[in-house]
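User: I'm curious whether this sequence folds into something compact or stays loose and floppy. Could you predict its structure so I can see for myself?
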Amino acid sequence: MKQENEGPQPVRERVNDFWLRVGGITALNIFLNIFFYLHLSQEKNIPFWKIFLLSTFFVFLSWEVTRWVVLQVRKRFPGLQNMRTRIIRLTIYVTLATVALSIFKVWFQDAIEFYGEMNSGIFDYFYGFGMNMFYALVITGIYESLYYFPPMATTARRDGVAQTGQSPEPVRFTEEPGQSALSFQ
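Assistant: Here's the prediction. I'll summarize afterward.
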């Protein structure tokens, strides 16, 4: 006997996103270094390579933690039918993870005396939170967009057939219809 769907069921998926991670971390790090961290080299007399290494570490950490949160929430609330719940949960969990990462970032910078002395105030925590939230929003947006497009294309094709009776040209984001553009296995 088939049971009715009693809520979201966990979905096991393997994400093949190696190049997205490598390219995304690299691009985000270059962007941040040019537009947000380059001035530290002049103002605080910190060698650029130190700034670049530290920002690479924190971009990597932010990417991996945010990616993990996105995939965990997606396992629990898969598909377009759970989009609202998933986005609400992502907002909560990504914000909590970002707060933790921000506290760790300021603590770590103080511990290694990155700026030459320990002088972190409340502004440093808010600034760190803002920067980490920026990373997290970009990363979450990328992963969720790649997750939504294939199912939406399948729905659009299905609706087009229902309305016109004719099958439009297929939109192919992946090899399998309804599969994510990240090539899930």
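Summary: The mean pLDDT is 80. Residues 122-164 form the longest helix (43 residues).
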